[in-house]
UniProtKB/TrEMBL annotation:
Localization per Swiss-Prot or TrEMBL: Cytoplasm, Cytosol
GO biological process, one term: vesicle tethering involved in exocytosis
GO cellular component terms listed in the entry, alphabetical order: cytosol; exocyst; membrane
Organism whose genome encodes this protein: Hibiscus trionum
PANTHER family: EXOCYST COMPLEX COMPONENT SEC15B, SEC15
InterPro entries the record matches: EXOC6/Sec15 (IPR007225), EXOC6/Sec15_C (IPR046361), EXOC6/Sec15_C_dom1 (IPR042045), EXOC6_Sec15_N (IPR048359), EXOC6PINT-1/Sec15/Tip20_C_dom2 (IPR042044)
Protein biosynthesis found in the keyword field: no
Entry protein name: Exocyst complex component
Amino acid sequence: MHSMRSRRKGAATAVDGRDSGEKSEQLLLSSAICNGEDLGPFVRKAFASGRPETLLQLLRFFGRSKESEIEEVCKAHYQDFILAVDDLRSLLSDVDSLKSSLSDFNSRLQSVAGPLLSSLDSFVEAQNVSNNVDTALQSVTTCIKVIELCSRANHHLSNGSFYMALKCLDSIENEFFDKTPSSTLKRMLGRKIPEIRSHIERKIIKEFSNWLVEIRAVSRNLGQLAIGEASAARQREEDLRIKQRQSEEQSRFSSRDFVYALQEDDDENDGFKGNIRLLDFDLAPLFRAYHIHQTLALEDQFKQYYFENRKLQLASDFQVSSMTPFLESHQAFFAQIAGFFIVENRVLRTGGGLISKMEVENLWETAVTKMCSVLEDQFSRMQTANHLLLIKDYVSLFGVALRRFGYPVDSLLYVLSKHRDKYHELLLSDCRKKIAEALAADKFEQMLMRKEYEYSMNVLAFHIQTSDIVPAFPYVAPFSSTVPDCCRIVRSFIEDSVSFMSYCGQLDFYDVVKKYLDQLLSEVLDGALLKLINSSVHGVSQAMQVAANIAVLERACDFFFRHAALLSGIPLRTAERSRRQFPLNKARDAAGDILSGMLKIKVDGLMTLIENVNWITDEPSQAGNEYVNEIIIYLETLVSTAQQILPTQVLKRVLQDVLSHISMKIVEALLSDSVKRINANSIMGIDVDIQLLESFADNLASVFSEEGDKIQLKNALAESRQLINLLLSNHPENFMNPVIRERSYNALDYKKVVKISEKLRDPSDSLFGSFGNRGAKPKNPKKKSLDALIKRLKDVS
């Protein structure tokens, strides 16, 4: 202990002699050791400075500095250490006894466990074999299932059950591909599954392509069937409308009739729905292809492929052959398009999103635009009204058929209505030719009808009968064959016009039909009749027949406008209110004028006999002069013939013109320069002539039922009658009384009165005769009044 202290003191003395740098290093080293820090930096520094001995010295110094502390600790725990050593010694004896016990137990355990270990090794080996067998069985089972699925997929492929084959492939991929123990089998599956899918896609695309070809052929039949059904439905509507018109004409409406009509309409709707079910077609290949592509995760690709192919098909359907007239190909053209959109409607409703509503609407807009363009082009080339009507009817049926599937067709109907003016111009042109041909073929002979069906076809059909009683046959009509021919032409025009205007989107089109009907009657028919009258009428009988025809056509015009109203679906009272004057006025006036003119020429020929009248006769004629007898005989013959064909008003007008002309000719005869002098006896003879003519007018009571008609005929002789009355009057000067003149002599011209009155004066009353008669008895008051009249009229003039 003393030696250790002496060393510590010597070391301390040595350390004290070191420099302050070593002290600082010592302190740092001591602090690091006490704190349990890493001494590596100190070691590296010592070797780096080349003074490892210094570090060793410092460490030794630090160790010596801690020896005293160790000593103190040992002193403090010395007793405990001795006790622990004693415990260890006793423990060693126990351990030896335990070791011997364990050795004995181990030997016994070895002797017992030996057979068990050998059995355990056999069990473990058997268990490993069993596990290997189970794994092999599982692998074989998996391979068998894979092979079974492959076999099933092959079977489905050979049968064309592509969806089931794809489901087998999906099952192999999702459930067995990763579990397949055979790498060879896995490689084979990895190579074949994509190939099989590509094969299925090619096969299904081929089937879809075949379906596209087939559906195009089916579409035309579908379109024709749908348009035919629309036509049948329209015909049923027309039949019902005809029944309603018949009921309106008979004015026998009843509640039962209305119920019947409504029930019939319901039956028609049911029939249409039933026939719509016949519009069936096979979409299975399409939906199968769509389903397969959905299974292949190619749904969007197939949608685009389908849309593009159908779009190309529609563009192909729009092609109009320039080699075939559109009139022959228009039905196939529109039927193909109709079938196309019927198919698309079904695909839209049942395709499960294969095509969208917007895509169908875009296709329809494209189709409507193209169809409108084709119609505009074709209509602009057509020069036959019937061709245009045929196409219009089919297009309107096309519109009806497609509207029932929800497609708007207003643009097509607008194109049709836009060409109504051209259609009616062509129709008027056709009617102009037909009417000209009918009039040119007229023989101006009354039409003979031998059978009742002829009467019904030529008379009752146009409501031109004068009586509801069916005449006895054979029946001679008052008109010639031209009348029913022209009526048929006009009726056909009305029906064609209404047919064109119907189903063009305009409900109230009667005004349009009436406008063109007025044009046909007032321009075409009236003009043709006027031309016939001016160029082809060469006799009284022909003129009379033409006048009779026009009178019958006047009755037919009422039928034409009623027929147009009925076909247009408006009440007859509305049509009656909108009627205007008779549209054949020019022809009627011309026929009356030419007939009157011819009769006047004939009368003029007979009036030449008035030159044989003795104007200074000593005795008045009691039986009338020769000329008037001849005229009356001729007029009686004329009336007996004319009343069989001419209507009363036409005959009255003609007779008025003739009698007025006769009256004028009598006055002209009295005014003639060839008549130098007349006496009272000749005036009395003329009075008898006029009385005979008036008697002739009175005798027409059987012809003219109204009293006013006979008065009008007598008034036609007003000028000659008033003149004779004035000349035979006892007070001729009353002519100058305005009241009397207006009442009794309003048809007379005072200049003519003066001239004729001067011829009636006795020559002895002249200026030179008065000197020889001085002192004679006074003048006759009548002569005096006549002289006064002449003088006053001359003063007025």
